[in-house]
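Issue 218. Parser rejects a valid record. Input:
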Amino acid sequence: MILNSSTPTSEKTRYRLSWRQAFFYLLLPIIIYAASVSSSPSQISYHDHCSSIVPESPHTPSRFPDLLFGGKENGCCLGGDRILSHEYSSDYKRLALQTRNIYRTEAEGVFMVEGSMNLQSSNKYYYGEDWREEENSLSGVLSTSFWGGSVAFLLHGFWSESSGKLCMVGTGSAYSREGDVLDLGAVIKLNNVKNLSTVTDLVNGSLESLNLASDPNFFEPISMVVFPQLNYKYTLVSDVGFESNFGFCSILTRPDNWFELEYPNDCYPSQNCSRIGGEIGYLPNFINIRASKCTEDEQRLQVMIKFHNFSYVGYNQQSSPIMILVGEGWWDAKNNLISIVACRILNTMESLANARIGDCSMRLSLEFPAILSIRSRSGYVGQIWSNKTVDDSGYFNRIMFKSPEDMTLGIPGLKYEYTEIDRAGKVCQKKNSAGNNGERYPNPKESFDMQFDMVVKNSNGVMGWVSASPFFVGDNLYNPFEYGTLSSISNARKIGPVNISYLISFTLEHGAEFGLSSGTHNIKVHISAEGIYDAKTGGLCMVGCRRLNSSIWIRKNDSMDCEILVNFQFPPLGSKKEVYIRGSIESTRERSDPLYFNILQLSSSSTEAENSRSIGTMEKPVH
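Output the parser choked on:
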């Protein structure tokens, strides 16, 4: 939903808007269908608005064999704030253009085109104390929010293959600020629409209202760019010729390939890395790499690269074209990496009508490490750089990036190296000295109970939430699903101490202090840990390393703080007295050290122990 003020609304208002959002989402297909029947695109005169661009001609039954545009998110647009509202008029919106039917006509090289176009802004909704942004998949009809979320048009027109021009007219529907349905008439004019495309080809043009400016259905002109994919021809990379059984296409065609950028010291201030952040005034935190076209047999891929300050597709705006790269890559099977040549989109500051692709000086590489450790747990690691010389404008040093630590690819032979296990053993020998008194505890290889959520509290009583999950158990990736049971505990007592590694993340509420991190916003912390689990006592003791944000690790000359001790105690399985997992996270640094933080106490109910005590319990007890 989109609100007109940043003032928190009442629960009643939020509920009403959420209902309207859901109602409009369900109603939109009906609106579009009704519009197509009662006010079809054919009722708008093509001759009056497009004949000077591509003269119309009677069509024949013969169809063009390919679709010019496939319909998934394939572009972005600027303008139209009256129907595509946003906090700032300069924000870019997303675009999905689809051609459904293409017929040959009696004129040579002229085709009649029928299609649709969906436009969507980044929607904002109010949640608790935060404003968040919602993006939904652009496939078929777009999901929508209350006013200004999405507009869908049905279009028809003609395309000239020789001139590359496509002109279409049509109707669409949207909501006004007051919640009324708008009946929109529009003309779309596109340039550079070709039957063959390369990386430097870019379709651009405009969408204009056919209503008078005084009409409530009028909207401001919308400029747009669309990335062509029809009959794509690689020009930046040649045939590779390698064979590989590694399915890199299935990895890079996912939409959630976000990586965190790690800038070198000389990138601050951002002017020193102007090619990345200078034009927008800041250095983005994340990079997304997605293959729009990928063929395993050719070992080549067409890619789109986006920079942003948000890491997840569900919480980010459409990237500005100046923060988008397009390019080509190839799979280097010998070195187990993907190499990419990328180009920038130019002339996009005020309008997209004259946008073009150029400056193909960007280079990227993306590797898949075969060995992970407590300091390096990312399934992807890569770097981006410029092939310009130091004296050239836009040159910058190599910038590293890596995937989140919980993203592993399951590459055959993937291994984990316990580099801190000796240190953990010395500390944990003192911690886990109690006997088990015949009790049974979770089997680390087979139990879902090894992953859990907890409540965290510091010495000041500030609350937060912790999520913990095993990463490797011994030499194997943690995967309890392989065993097909929630309670495989028969062999737990026969298992001795086991090396284990964990991924731990938690969020402290605003007002908390955590080392050098503090402020009015929630503090998010990620800890990699490894140590020893004793299935005879239920004790888990580990040393941990937390990732420092860039402003801290540049000052400390280290991206990790590994002076952390983590302890968990699992309850006995089947116990009716004790059903809580209890634990602590503490710093082993001196109190005078800037990275020192007060001990955090944690508690949570054990899934298996709780289920043993009360099958079907809907809510876990929290201490």
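Fixed in the parser; the record now loads. The longest strand covers residues 93-105.
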